[in-house]
Amino acid sequence: MQKWLPSRLDNTYNRNLEDKMIKNRSTFVSNVLSKVLLFVMLLWVSGCKCPFWAQSGETAAEGDRRHTRNLKVNQESLSGDIDRALLFDKPSKATDIRIPAPTENK
Q1: Is 54 exposed, middle or buried (0-12, 13-18, 19+ CB in 10 A)?
Q2: Cα–Cα distance measured from residue 10 to residue 3, given in angstroms and rounded to the nearest whole number
Q3: What is the reported pLDDT for 65?
């Protein structure tokens, strides 16, 4: 009767220790993720007008033109990729078939 009692207590102790370690690890991971998320949100809220985002010797108007040009190029590239994926960049196989105009039967 006495033999199984200590091993059972040891298993309970080990299980409690493992639970605490898992809780500590999940708490650590959640703390790190929340801090990273907070840092990213602060960068996002600060916007692109911060001095460390701007290029040296570039005015605000030049930066706006550069951003507009980059957005336009990215939009055209995305549109081209979508057209290529959906096969809109090639003529279809049905273009050679002509449907005759309806004629009146007398």
Answers
A1: middle
A2: 12
A3: 94
**CB 80 within 8 Å of CB 89:** yes
Model confidence, pTM: 0.37
Which residue matches tokens 């309970």?
A: 12
Range from 69-73, 76-80, 91-95 carrying the lowest mean pLDDT? 91-95
Token pair listed for 57: 């010797």
User: Is the dihedral angle over the CA atoms 11, 14, 20, 23 positive or is it negative?
Assistant: negative
The band of 39, judged by pLDDT with boundaries at 50, 70 and 90, is confident
Separation CA 78–CA 97 (nearest Å): 31
Q: Is the predicted pLDDT of residue 6 greater than 80, yes or no?
A: no
> What single-letter DSSP state applies at residue 105?
-
Residues 6+ apart with CB under 8 A from 66: 58
17 is written with which tokens? 């220790």
| Of 30, 52, 49, 33, nearest in space to 41 by CA | 33
Q: Are 51 and 43 in contact (CB under 8 A)?
A: no
